[in-house]
Amino acid sequence: MKGDRFIKAFMRMKLVGERDFFVSRSPEYVALRAEAILLLNEAGVRQSDIARAVRRDPTTISYWLNEAKRKRKAAYHARTRGRQRVPRQALLDRRWQVAAERGSITT
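Request: output the structure for the sequence above.
Response:
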């Protein structure tokens, strides 16, 4: 397949084993996969062939090749992370209180 030999050479050059390159979610190995994806794309390899070579879904390859998409996702996570969530018990207590005020619940 296209890209397989490149990936094997890339792993040898970076001194990375198959398990680390293909399975690990560690940021350093994710960065290596992203680098390999970009290099294969620059070499003219189709996205579907890149996906097979790095053992990832084609949408993942599309994500790494589309910088605007990565920036949008990073901005979204920056906005939503750390958002205060209301504990579930507080929501249930509030519902009981509203129901009791309406007279729906008699105790």
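The chain has a mean pLDDT of 87.
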